[in-house]
Design a protein that fits this description.
The protein is built from 2 helices and no strands. The protein has helices spanning 2-62, 67-74. The chain crosses the membrane at residues 21-43.
């Protein structure tokens, strides 16, 4: 009987460690998912900014300026 009790105590310790490991794994997966979502939203704003820049360049080129002048102007140059 005493051997069975010792074995059950060893198992409960391992079970707690495995539970903690699983909880940590779940937490790190959650943090990774949140980070990936933040990166995805960052790409959306870059796409929008890129579209606005391209529209600016096209508009300046239609006014009769060269490509390099249009890009310089849209980057904030005069």
């Amino acid at each position: 009987m005493t051997e069975e009790k010792k074995d059950s105590k060893k198992c409960s310790g391992k079970r707690n460690i495995m539970f903690a490991y699983g909880f940590i794994q779940l937490g790190s997966s959650l943090v990774s998912a949140i980070a990936l979502a933040a990166i995805a939203f960052g790409f959306c704003s870059v796409k929008k900014e890129s579209k606005l820049f391209n529209n600016c360049v096209v508009e300046i080129i239609e006014d009769g300026r060269s490509n390099s002048e249009a890009v310089r102007y849209c980057n904030g140059g005069n």
